[in-house]
Amino acid sequence: SNPALAEVQMDRSLEDHITVRRIRSYETEVWRATRLAALKDAPDAFGPTYEDTLNRPVSAWADRVTDAATGDRIAVFAAVLGKRWLGLAGVGTAGPDDDLPLGTRHLGSVWIAPEARGRQLVPRLLDAAHDWAVAGGASRIALEVTETNERAINIYEQYGYRRTGISHPLRPGSELNELRMSMDLEAPQES
Q: What is the pLDDT, as a whole number, of residue 100?
């Protein structure tokens, strides 16, 4: 059993010990385990499926972690309690197939472990992702969320995201759609 995914009995005193940080280049296994747990827990929240993701070669996972830990193209942030990962959020530059405007970063892979939900970890992960995006020169950030995921939509709207009116299928052949939401990012004010 993976200690990173061990059941966590959350109480209020533990919340102060949860850190949100960028993943590290040697954390391939714990990132893989957490990502697979997310896909298994919430299959309709992500484009990739558990089955497709499970079969990725270890080298692909390691390459992604190295990029996400040290690169300027993508970053992955984890909410961590001790050695347990309780949440994830990824952010990156738009890919060649994305229809996002210049200066927009894409937020994705946001997930909180069931035992840690309701602990205000999403805003902390979004803060980290937004800070990284602003530091990289982004002026806007966009995400896609499954249309039936009202809890996530509400969290994003409370944070400041707005629906853009753009939607597309969750994955080829899916009856579910993803809604695009976005928000403007503000650079820190000079004092």
A: 84
Q: Contact at 8 Å (CB) between 127 and 140?
A: no
Tokens of residue 65, six digits: 């972690």
- pLDDT for 16: 73
Residue 76: CA atoms inside 13 Å, Cβ hemisphere, count?
A: 26
| The residue type at 49 | T
Residue 186: predicted pLDDT: 82
47 touches 13 (CB < 8 A): no
Torsion from C-alpha of 4, 7, 11, 12, nearest 10 degrees: 30
Average pLDDT over the chain, rounded to an integer: 89
Interatomic CA distance for residues 96 and 90, integer angstroms: 18
Mark residue 28 as left, alpha or beta (left: phi above 0; alpha: psi -120 to 50; beta: remaining).
alpha
Low-confidence ranges of the chain (pLDDT < 50): 1-10
3-state secondary structure at position 58: helix
